[in-house]
């Protein structure tokens, strides 16, 4: 169900048209996307237009330039750094005699290559099927022909077109059926994830999610903090499948650290929808570590792009700590920037060089304990279970026996969590 690249299409010609509303830095990102897909870029054709040509996206002169360059480079795959209509895509393939792939198609192709787990493969397949269904609606008119009926042959055996059904209708029906099946399997995965989240919620385990623009260094930081070996590559979308590990934070105790898929400009909505089950981990987090590549000039634009996606999935209200990574490439020193209340809002680190990680942990501790209260709980001799519950919650910092012979516990805990522990004790008496 993945894209049918032509055989031996390791050489691709890139096409980028500037419509005066697109950022110039996207060209380098486009090259990086091609490299991440395992393609070698023969050349990049640039152009400027005020608006796309409705038939071929580019004008006749640019079309001739693209064809000449593709023939000279021996490129049988042409990548457009834009989304094309099905009609434009079909006309370009006919005029150029080469396979055409759009920016969305390229991203989907990378995801198809990188998915490893059952869930990841299902999510990618769903996105691919939805993308394919849009190609069928208006672009595949060569399939829109009458079928006289399946008869007794193979078509009848697998339930293809019956009397009067067109090939286009058959393809639409089969894709819709496949989408329904994939959605059903993904619903099962979602239920399993929800059960895991409920179990963590009952155990009062906080979740911290790593989010950020793709290739900002999330997996490298994840490995350093959790002392594990998640796959790290200098490519876009090196990590697709979410990974969860325990992380011990001073005072707070054990939390769950989640590594998530990276974001990118114009991330296809079909991918956002397909990966919603994965991104739900972000929605239930107590804190988002928003990684930003400090070495790129586009760090603010990338940061804003991630925030747009977070808003789209309903995670924009969760506390964020901006982690400016790769400071070793720009000669910066580790430091913490704080807001007017003295709460960390930004920390500068180098995860590759393990520089500033202690400052990051300090920030995490400060943010997660900001809502905690410090109080003394005096226990009667019969309240041994309450003492055990407070210790189990990791709340006790000190205990002593007062002058009246009663046990006093100094506890540090979120007020709501302390109320739950005390309520549980009252209900048990």
Shape call? elongated
Question: What's the β-strand tally?
Answer: 14
CATH architectural grouping of the largest domain:
3-Layer(aba) Sandwich
Q: Approximately how much helix is present in the residues?
A: 40-55%
- The CATH topology assignment of the largest domain is Rossmann fold
Report the end-to-end length measured between terminal Cα atoms: 60 Å
**Largest beta-sheet characterization:** 7 strands, mixed
Number of structural units classed as domains: 4
Instruction: Please write the CATH class name of the largest domain.
Output: Alpha Beta
Arithmetic mean of pLDDT:
80
Compressed to H and E, one letter per element, the order equals EHEHEHEHHHHEHEEHHEHEEEHEHEEH
Strand order of the largest sheet: 6-7-5-8-9-11-10
Structure description:
The chain is an alpha/beta fold and 429 residues long. It folds into four domains: 11-111, GTPase HflX, N-terminal domain (Rossmann fold); 118-134 and 146-189, no CATH class; 205-368, P-loop containing nucleotide triphosphate hydrolases (Rossmann fold); 372-428, 2-Layer Sandwich (Alpha-Beta Plaits), CATH 3.30.70. It contains 14 helices and 14 strands. It has a seven-stranded mixed beta sheet with strand order 6-7-5-8-9-11-10, sandwiched between helices. Helix 1 runs parallel beside helix 4 (103-114) and helix 13 packs antiparallel against helix 14. The radius of gyration is 27 Å and the shape is elongated. Mean pLDDT is 80; it is low at 5-9 and 138-161.
């Amino acid at each position: 169900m993945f894209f049918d690249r032509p055989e031996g299409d390791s050489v691709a010609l890139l096409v980028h048209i500037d419509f005066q509303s697109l950022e110039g830095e996207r060209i380098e990102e486009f090259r990086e996307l091609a490299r991440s897909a395992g393609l070698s870029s023969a050349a990049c054709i640039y152009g400027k237009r005020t608006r796309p040509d409705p038939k071929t996206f580019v004008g006749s002169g640019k079309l001739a330039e693209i064809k000449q360059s593709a023939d000279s480079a021996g490129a049988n795959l042409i990548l457009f750094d834009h989304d094309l209509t099905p009609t434009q895509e079909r006309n370009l393939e006919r005029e150029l005699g080469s396979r055409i792939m759009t920016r969305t198609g390229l991203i989907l192709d990378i995801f198809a290559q990188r998915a490893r787990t059952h869930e990841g493969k299902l999510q990618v397949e769903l996105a691919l099927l939805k993308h394919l269904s849009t190609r069928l609606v208006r672009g595949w008119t060569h399939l829109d022909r009458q079928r006289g009926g399946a008869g007794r042959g193979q078509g009848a055996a697998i339930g293809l077109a019956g009397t009067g059904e067109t090939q286009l209708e058959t393809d639409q029906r089969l894709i819709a059926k496949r989408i329904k099946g994939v959605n059903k399997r993904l619903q099962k995965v979602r239920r399993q994830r929800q059960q895991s989240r409920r179990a963590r919620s009952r155990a009062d385990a906080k979740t911290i999610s790593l989010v950020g623009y793709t290739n900002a260094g999330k997996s490298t930081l994840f490995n350093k903090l959790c002392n594990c070996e998640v796959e790290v590559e200098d490519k876009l979308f090196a990590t697709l499948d979410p990974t969860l590990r325990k992380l011990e934070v001073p005072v707070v105790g054990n939390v769950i650290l989640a590594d998530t898929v990276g974001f990118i400009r114009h991330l296809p909505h079909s991918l956002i929808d397909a990966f919603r089950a994965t991104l739900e981990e972000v929605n239930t987090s107590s804190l988002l570590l928003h990684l930003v590549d400090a070495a790129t000039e586009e760090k603010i634009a990338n940061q804003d792009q991630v925030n747009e996606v977070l808003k789209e999935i309903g995670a924009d209200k969760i506390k964020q700590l901006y982690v400016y990574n790769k400071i070793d490439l720009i000669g910066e020193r580790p430091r913490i920037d704080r807001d007017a209340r003295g709460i960390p809002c930004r920390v500068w680190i180098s995860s590759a060089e393990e520089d500033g990680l202690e400052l990051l942990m300090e920030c995490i501790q400060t943010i997660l304990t900001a809502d905690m209260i410090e109080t003394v709980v005096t226990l009667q001799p019969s309240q041994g279970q309450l003492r055990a519950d407070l210790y189990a919650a990791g709340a006790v910092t000190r205990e002593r026996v007062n002058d009246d012979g009663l046990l006093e516990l100094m506890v540090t805990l979120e007020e709501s969590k302390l109320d739950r522990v005390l309520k549980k004790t009252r209900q048990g008496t």
